[in-house]
Specification:
Elements: E1 2-3, H1 12-26, H2 35-44, E2 49-56, E3 66-75, E4 87-95, E5 104-110
Length: 115
């Protein structure tokens, strides 16, 4: 297991695109806040969550190989008053394609953190 950064052999652009695709998929699984909180975050260009990325296995040089990524998502302390679950763990499989801007993302939430 290693960090999901340029040290795994992918470019910063590829990593940014993959992380963005995963974040968009995770939004469907994370709790939703009230409209006023969501609107405030939107206008401030912020997110209520902190993401920690971990590459499971190794990145293959083959562009069409799948990546397995572990994601820990924590709620920022300023939003703990919302009384929702503050931490989530996800396993994600990303199938890269010829078009780097549209990777296939499959996300599933883990009930307990891996050790």
């Amino acid at each position: 297991m290693s960090k999901f950064d340029v040290s795994c052999g992918l470019t910063a652009k590829e990593i940014g695109i993959i992380k963005d695709a995963i974040r968009r998929s995770l939004l469907k699984s994370l709790p939703i806040f009230s409209d006023s909180v969501e609107m405030k975050l939107f206008f401030e260009g912020r997110d209520a969550w902190i993401y920690a990325w971990e590459l499971l296995g190794e990145a293959q040089s083959d562009r069409l190989s799948a990546l397995n990524i572990g994601i820990q998502v924590k709620l920022k302390k300023e939003f703990h008053y919302q009384e929702i679950q503050t931490q989530h763990f996800f396993l994600c499989s990303v199938q890269r394609k010829d078009d780097i801007y549209h990777p296939a993302v499959l996300v599933r939430e883990e009930s307990v953190k891996r050790t």
